[in-house]
Amino acid sequence: MKLGFSPEEELFRAECADWLNAQMAGEFRDIKGISTLTEKAERRKEWEQHLGAHGWGCIGWPKEWGGRGATLAEQVIFAEEYARAGVPGRVNHIGIELAGPTILTFGTEDQKKRFLPDIAAGNTIFCQGFSEPGAGSDLASVRTKGRLENGSWVVNGQKIWTSLAHISDWIFVVTRTEEGSKGPKGLTFLMMPIDQPGIEIRPIKQINGDAEFNETFFTDATCPEDSLIGAVGDGWRIAMGLLAFERGVSTLGQQMAFRNELDAIILDAKANGAASDSLVRQRLAKAEIGLRLMRYGALRMLSNTDHSKVDGAALTYKIQWATWRRNLGELAMDVLGQAGEVTDNADYEWTMLPNLFLYSRADTIYGGTNQIQRNLIAERGLGMPREPRGDV
Amino acid sequence: MDFRFSEDQLVLVESVRDYFSGTHGPEVLRRLDVDGNRDPAIWQALVDMGLTGLCVPEAHGGLGMGLVEAALIAAECGRVCLAEPLVDTAFVAVPWLIAKGETDKLSAIASGDHKVALPHVLNPWVADGEGKPQTSVDPLRNLAMFPASGSNDDRLLNLGALMNAAQLLGLADAMLEQAVEYAKIRTQFGQPVGAFQGIKHQLASCAVAVEFAKPVVWRAAAAMQDGLETAPVHVSHAKIAASDAAMLTAETAIQVHGAMGYTYEVDLHFWMKRSWALVGGWGDRSYHYKRLDAAVLGGSIPIGPEHTFA
């Protein structure tokens, strides 16, 4: 066991911090500290391009595709410094963390050439077409249909909870391409350009007033025959591979963003007197413990990997951070008291901590609910019998 | 000790619940959210049912009822997420004015012509009052920064806390019902999600919290009505129990609704945000816990084998 980062890694950390702080103090100071994914969307796209132009867009990718071939430790360091510098979330998170790695792992040479350089440069924004109104936790029951016709895929159906579809260029879509198939069989993973008459996007307003999610409707939407990743009928394997990316590397650097949120709560508690309440003090201490627990857990996962994938302990990570952060939102509101539920704004727009409370309700739902996570831990991690289900 | 309500009390509650269930569904909340939160027709209906005068003495044109009846109706207001300031005016302000011997406005309140917004030092903002408007997390709540400083009267605080607790019971009931109904119709993996223990056990825990909060609130209402010295302790207990039940139910109901529960389109958020607003008002959890621990450790609740529950 050797804890801490190496001198080289600390040098890299300083390099990341210097560059990010300079950007947030300079050309991109207008986006510093934004806490939603939707505010100033055009500037955020410019920020993606700026990252790409300076080689910071996707440091974990291989050099030949626009990355730096960074180690997992370096990726975590970059993510930490990114949050520490108050840089807003990546609007191309899906492209960098999900679409890119999926194409790298499962795509053809031609597809890599077609997509990866543009994602790396911040020119192509991706969104994810997985969930449907009838296929949420039960993702395998997707009904959106795809069929091959005159050398094109023709897609009909509906996706939902497509984050940032309204500012995206491409969407990857899990479609049912085998007539009459059920569950994970007969699915195909397609990549489709969004700007076409067959795709309609409608925003979904969330409880915090923001509209990050969308419904995406496909009516004879098309893409070329070679837009599929993997083989026809191979969609479930690709989708599961992609979700492993979602549950793995991309969540490892988030503790610094959580650190910022907890620090803000501690400062408020000191300022408004809530810190003198013994119940609040204990909950703040508990939050600190939970944060460190995640930190050490992440570092442990990091040490156990061969730098390309995360081991089985990663199964426990989603429920841990999501539950911790949801509790943090509740703590924030108890610290703020009534001030947390009121704003001077005439519009229904909320500052960081009230937004944390409202937004964190979704943390235990998206990307696999806490209930699904427990089933995964019990069934895949512990090898317990599968929960009885109805006839699908 | 008898927790049963009288026939008259039950009939009153049933008639109000029937009226609301026929006229004040979620579509009303959505309409108000778009059209500006207050609707004179809804207020007039409350007046016509006699609710603005529920606690006003008959001599001043009211029904002359007490705090138990008021708490029962406040729970019904919570159940339908009523936005009109009925509870603040008729169930908090009226009993307070009567206790202070100020009767000149009572008949105007009973007739629906006068609404009262009561600032208190524990509430930095006041609903439906004069002053600089503020945006509340509850989109149907018209908050204002009250220009003058508020009262620090304990009786007012206790009335406000009691009535918030009563509303929270109704809010919790309604959210639990919405979540249960959703869990019955939403299917995943070939069955209603409510068939999974991971879901149904959570809702069962909400039912436990809500059912145990109810008698605590009724006890507090009776204690205040009877002028018991221990009434403030009962009120603090009620506020905490109802707040915890409502928040647990709000949070569970969102989880059970999945991503739908996080949307503005699903009505649940109106109830959840009202709960949040009421939990914070008239003394938060921390404030009421302090009153309870002061009572337990400070001797105002007698301890020892010679004492029984009161």
Automatic annotation (TrEMBL), chain A:
Chain ranges of the Acyl-CoA dehydrogenase/oxidase C-terminal domain: 233-381
Gene Ontology terms, MF aspect: flavin adenine dinucleotide binding; oxidoreductase activity, acting on the CH-CH group of donors
Pfam family, one: Acyl-CoA_dh_M
Cofactor requirement: FAD
Domain Acyl-CoA oxidase/dehydrogenase middle: from-to ranges: 127-219
Highest taxon of the lineage: Bacteria
InterPro entries, A to Z: Acyl-CoA_Oxase/DH_mid-dom, Acyl-CoA_Oxase/DH_mid-dom_sf, AcylCo_DH-like_C, AcylCo_DH/oxidase_C, AcylCoA_DH/ox_N, AcylCoA_DH/ox_N_sf, AcylCoA_DH/oxidase_NM_dom_sf, Mycobact_Acyl-CoA_DH
Keyword terms of this UniProt record: FAD, Flavoprotein, Oxidoreductase
Domain Acyl-CoA dehydrogenase/oxidase N-terminal: 6-122
One Gene Ontology term, aspect cellular component: plasma membrane
Family recorded in the similarity comment: Belongs to the acyl-CoA dehydrogenase family.
Name the UniProt record assigns to this protein: Acyl-CoA dehydrogenase
Species, as recorded: Sphingorhabdus contaminans
Lineage, top ranks: Bacteria, Pseudomonadati, Pseudomonadota, Alphaproteobacteria, Sphingomonadales
UniProtKB/TrEMBL annotation, chain B:
Domain of life: Bacteria
Cofactor(s) this protein cannot do without: FAD
Keywords linked to the UniProt accession: FAD, Flavoprotein, Oxidoreductase
Family note: Belongs to the acyl-CoA dehydrogenase family.
InterPro entries associated with the record: AcylCo_DH-like_C, AcylCo_DH/oxidase_C, AcylCoA_DH/ox_N, AcylCoA_DH/ox_N_sf, AcylCoA_DH/oxidase_NM_dom_sf
Domain Acyl-CoA dehydrogenase/oxidase C-terminal: 157-274
GO molecular function: acyl-CoA dehydrogenase activity; flavin adenine dinucleotide binding
Name of this protein: Acyl-CoA dehydrogenase
Signal peptide limits: none
Domain Acyl-CoA dehydrogenase/oxidase N-terminal: 6-83
